[in-house]
Amino acid sequence: MNIDIDHQKQNLAGVSRAELAAAMTEIGAEPFRARQLWHWIYHRGSTDFAVMTNLAKPFRERLAEQFALRRPEVATALTSRDGTRKWLLRFADGNEAETVHIPEEDRGTLCVSSQVGCTLTCRFCHTGTQRLVRNLTAAEIVGQVMLARDALGEWPSTPSGAGEDRLLTNIVLMGMGEPLYNFDNVAAAMKIVMDPEGLAISRRKITLSTAGVVPMIERCGRELGVNLAISLHAVSDELRDVLVPLNKKYPIAELLAACGAYPGSSNARRITFEYVMLKGVNDTPAEARELVRLLRGIPAKVNLIPFNPWPGAPYECSRAEAIAAFSDILFAAGYSAPVRTPRGRDILAACGQLKSASQRARRSERAVEPAEA
Ligand code: SAH
């Protein structure tokens, strides 16, 4: 067998400042080298030590012998008719997850995955039909952002919102997986992504979406201060227990109480409540009015998501009139309630359509179930 030496080297693309400093110590380099490398890796997006011209040539060679600057491998890349792009990424152990870029007029959003598969089994979600294989590492989460910046040709990084029109301005943790069941890695990744001397995407441009892992919500706000989105989808526990089984553990009242206490939320920075529109299931005017009642007192906006179909899905999308009527009721009560335009449906890149073929390996290699699950 031909052993790929490069794949045995420690990958520095995706590591934290502390890990980078440790790597420099390990090879006996001065501590300030970590800062220089940080700039090349995260500001310039370098994938080759040879370009790092402020480092002496022998040192660059030394780095190349010892370390690598790898991206996740692109197994498949698809582009939708509407410009949405989807990458199926293959990580070093062969497991795969998807990342989606959604270009809009005034911004570009990258939808990032946090796990391979998912434990939640939400009834209407395609990812939910794939068992959890494993959590993604922090480096694999950061790697999705770096890969996108490569593909979009947007190195060097500039502070978000600054300068010319950028294709990658926002991040949503709305890909495969439940980010609050992989919080440590998600948090480590977002701290790298938010670092102003690197990828420099501000916490105000990052939204973490959760199905409602109540005990982790406060910590998310305190440690990361990113925007919060909640996959609500139903106004009664009876129905939400079916649609989002996690509700049996953390029912609506507890979830909303945690939202009301979310650090950093205000009328200027509202929590987004996502509500998938399922025909004949959760889309009546009475349910819209009940939603208004439930949200009272929480700085909230609502995002209505037309159901995106996938092979074998047990639901249909609500009729356009039902969605409009639902939105009107929320709007009349003072809530912003835009209908999320489906993007990338033709390449199965829209909300809830992501899935990879990765399966759990042998029993002995099973990923450890999160303690909350
Ligand atoms: N696990 C997190 C992150 C996934 S975000 C969460 O549940 O929030 C993906 C969003 O798309 C969630 O709001 C999810 O409920 C929604 N979604 C899932 N399947 C969908 C589908 N088929 N059509 C529309 N939205 C869907």
Keywords:
two-stranded parallel ribbon, binds S-adenosyl-L-homocysteine, 16% strand, 13 strands, alpha/beta, 10 helices, 373 residues, 9-stranded mixed beta sheet
Q: What does this entry look like structurally?
A:
The protein is built from ten helices and 13 strands. By secondary structure, the protein is α/β, with parallel strands linked by helices. It has a nine-stranded mixed β-sheet with strand order 3-4-5-6-9-10-11-12-13, covered by helices on one side. It has a two-stranded parallel sheet with strand order 1-2. Strands 7-8 form a two-stranded antiparallel ribbon. Helix 1 (17-26) packs across helix 2 (32-43), helix 4 (138-152) crosses helix 5 and helix 6 runs parallel beside helix 8. The longest helix is centred in the middle third of the chain and has 15 residues, at 138-152. Bound molecules: S-adenosyl-L-homocysteine. S-adenosyl-L-homocysteine binds at residues 122, 124-125, 174, 178, 209-211, 231, 274, 276, 305, 307-308, 351-352.
Task: List bound small molecules.
Answer: S-adenosyl-L-homocysteine
- Rounded to the nearest angstrom, the radius of gyration is 21 Å
Query: In what range is the share of β-strand residues?
Result: 15-25%
Characterize the biggest β-sheet: 9 strands, mixed
| Number of separate helices | 10
Order of helices and strands: EHHHEEEEEEEHEHEHEHHEHEH
Structural class: alpha/beta
Q: What distance separates the N and C termini? A: 40 Å
The low-pLDDT segments are 363-373
Tell me roughly what share of residues is in helical segments. Answer: 25-40%
Strand element count: 13
Mean pLDDT: 92
| Anisotropy-based shape | elongated
If strands are numbered along the chain, what order do they take across the biggest sheet?
A: 3-4-5-6-9-10-11-12-13
